[in-house]
Task: structure prediction
Amino acid sequence: MFLTLALLLLSARLLGELAKRLHQPAVLGELAAGILLGPTVFGRLAPSASQTIFPTSGEEAQVLRGIISLALVLFLLVVGMEVNLAGVRRQSRIALAVGAGGMVVPFGLGFLVAWMAPALLGMSSGSDVMIFALFFATAMSISALPVIAKTLTDINLLSSDLGMVVISAAIFNDLIGWMIFAIILGMMGGSHAAAAPHRETVQVVALTLGFAGAMLTLGRWLLHRILPWIQAYLSWPGGVLSFTLALALFGAAVTEWIGLHAIFGSFLVGVAIGESSHLRERTRAVIEQFISFFFAPIIFASIGLGVDFAANFDLPLVAIALLIACAGKLIGCSAGARLSGMSTRESWVVALGMNSRGAMEILLGTIALRDQVINQKTFVALVVIALVTSMMAGPLMLRVLGRKRARRFTDVLAAKAFVLELAAATKEDAIAELAAALASSAGLDEGLVASAVQERERSMSTAVGNHLAIPHARLANLPAPVIGVGLSRPGLAFDAPDGEPVQVLVLVLTAINDDGDQIDLLADIASTFKPGDACSQALAARSYTEFLAVVKALQGGVGSPSRALPGVKTTIIVNAATRPGNGRGSG
Amino acid sequence: MFLTLALLLLSARLLGELAKRLHQPAVLGELAAGILLGPTVFGRLAPSASQTIFPTSGEEAQVLRGIISLALVLFLLVVGMEVNLAGVRRQSRIALAVGAGGMVVPFGLGFLVAWMAPALLGMSSGSDVMIFALFFATAMSISALPVIAKTLTDINLLSSDLGMVVISAAIFNDLIGWMIFAIILGMMGGSHAAAAPHRETVQVVALTLGFAGAMLTLGRWLLHRILPWIQAYLSWPGGVLSFTLALALFGAAVTEWIGLHAIFGSFLVGVAIGESSHLRERTRAVIEQFISFFFAPIIFASIGLGVDFAANFDLPLVAIALLIACAGKLIGCSAGARLSGMSTRESWVVALGMNSRGAMEILLGTIALRDQVINQKTFVALVVIALVTSMMAGPLMLRVLGRKRARRFTDVLAAKAFVLELAAATKEDAIAELAAALASSAGLDEGLVASAVQERERSMSTAVGNHLAIPHARLANLPAPVIGVGLSRPGLAFDAPDGEPVQVLVLVLTAINDDGDQIDLLADIASTFKPGDACSQALAARSYTEFLAVVKALQGGVGSPSRALPGVKTTIIVNAATRPGNGRGSG
Result:
């Protein structure tokens, strides 16, 4: 069992990292890990070894399924914690229009096609057409808040008004979508929990709406008042941490008792508790990071274990489902945005953002497959929809906007242009030494670089205080920005605003016509080294790798520099994506 | 299943908090929760409801056992991370003497009695006497690093030389004890994992020593070099987090393959990785907090589910085992300490500290019970030993030393002496206002308090900068220190060293002959409000409860103020007890 879990976790995270390196959602790599380890590849190559390590029946398989159920419940807690109802309310008019459009159109389209031609979409004979059509319609209309937030962060749109609309609409969409899904599962009868009594559909719907309503009003109000009490009178941080997790498990137990899937309860607990300002960042980070980096990769990798993706890939089914999903979402959302007064270009950006499905679609499909609402072919189609829509969102949004991807300065930092110990004892010599290192690593003319940087330095010192200086210059015909770093342990007199000697030099070269690169990079460097002890941390490094490790830790878990636009309220950003630990960007 | 987990987690944590409030180890309350929910109490009162919620057989029971196995493996990772080999090496001579004495004497005594009179100690007929005697001897000689570290913190001894010796000896003791236990389990044959090949005892011992040796030398060296690389080139903090957890699972799989229990592998991984300075505090905190506050309470509460503590309580057995455990440990450790040149009093303090067993003994017993090395009666006796030795360590050490328990200022802060909004506009009026509030809440004479504080204030301003002032005075016949807090949002001119107005006033009254109370409290208050934004955080509070919540978060997870004694190396403290998230203090 431990080998199974270890292999799932390690391979999922490695391929997830690879996917992120290629600017794709991490969940893509995690799924790929499962497909490689499951019956699609490893099971085909070595059937007996595969059965030993990843058994499909017997006690170990049961235990693994139990652990994944627990992981799902905890993961939905984190997803719920990312939902910010206050943000939705602020952007309520446009968000409602976009959310409703993005819900109704694909739902209607999906329901119509599934109702008319269920066999085409892979319904097993003998299933209830109504339930199948309802599920398919829901699957078409779901969004994926986490992957949308990550895509927006990547292309530097999260804090803009446009980004706020997309996020708010996605929250609305997800809330309604999961509630409909919960009710569909309830309609199928209480097969989920042995302890759940048999209920009529009407009763399930009433209990679901009642529980959801109570959690989102009374529950929120109560939690906001209970949290400070727990922090004050129980041990810290253990009190709140255990309380939140126990509450998620209780929520799961309640929805199972109602006859719904357990995940819906922990999702609602997440929504209710996540918004409280009394839930401190450190507690939040512990819950999110552990669940996102331990349970979530195991969930997504385990998906590939149960299904043979090659044998169940049905091209016509995939093509039709993908068409319905994209057409419905794009038409619905852009219509909603246009009707609320957005420009055509903005409407398309919003619609493309909303079209991402990511992990949500896959979770929905996984549960539907377990409960036999759909078969493996439809499941594979849903996974393909999730991946394709998530992968195309970012690039297409950038193209429509005519923008480029945001970068961190570490993306253009070269290992060869890192000087661990500057020999120079003066400002001018240090700049010349670092310029020479950078010029040789980038294949530039040393004299040209040095003179451009020195000239800029003479106009005004580039020391920014806190032992940091960022000498910089623009060069003609530079194809891309290049950055070098030099450390000076004794320190250099640099005429800094705080009078302190400079110990960390970051040299930035950009093109003359650089489209804002220089400003972005300087701002990113300055904010990275803002903490008081940032430079002393950097000076402790004894190699380029150690230096990079320190800088990455200083940058935190966020994928790109946060640049809040003036006048935009940024509460939702804190809550939805730049929060520590949310840099994973599956979803 | 979710209801089961939720009930276990919530009741364990609540009773754990209660135990801590009574200055007892949290594990005591967690065990009590399981005893209440299990066959001892709830099962006796409502047998059918108990079977539904906590089934002892069937699929759900299997899944629960699987989740607890996973929890055990992860918990031992955290236990391993707390072991600091460098600290042991620094104190190596005395620590070795104490550790060896505390190992050999109880082991010998335990083995002798168990070998001579196995039936008396509850050995089931038909078991192997050799294995039973070896196990019983190991159980007598184990220590419990986490509970020892917590006890030392509580009584302010952790950073002293005496504390260092106890911690180092306990680490030595635990390392050897777990290795012997692993070998005993291995001797019983590979019943733990289906995939494990059958091995001879000699082979198991050789593989165990080889694996442990490799992990503690090559593994440590390698991990220290790999960690910065992961931080630099994979996403942060997800990369290191997933890597550590995956490694623990791999370690577990390796020891299962050898034929040992899985927990030994994750323990070794924890020792190897925990010592690397490249494992950042934030990553460490996420792993420790989530595991300590989610998995650990579930583990300890679940122990009570399997055993009827009332029916299996065998007084003669408990008495004899407790006698052997305490006599062996106290004699062995104090002899070791005396022989290394410590004074008689110090030797007794060290021996009393080492005598705590806590969670380790219970874990050992749980696994032995599962693997049928011992029966339920012996198991209950081991649990009693663990609890009694842990509970008596702190009070007895204090009595031998003639000291008293360390306090945080929040322990003596009174809700009634909290002024949310001081009406006063000057320093003198504010002190008078706060003094009046404190005097009325503590039943003191208002004029007396005010004049004593004002007089002290006139001699030199008690403003310490950063918007904080700590007016204070000593009063005759004050039975115990009392503290009041007043907030002034407009700020008061206080002649502070940084020239800033004072917004947070903490008024401290102690007795004239206060045995250091005043100094301790002033130091604790100053260090609590040291962060730059501490006062603005406090001012955001809108009630006493919210104020207390902010202060608790500022104090972090540590149970008592850290006061490093001059000249004592404090590395081990960081690693063993005051690290964030380690305030749980089970063990």
In short: The CA atoms of residues 112 and 133 of chain B lie 8 Å apart. Chain B has two domains: 2-401, 409-562. Chain B is about 65% helix and 5% strand. Chain B touches chain A through 76 residues (CB under 8 Å).
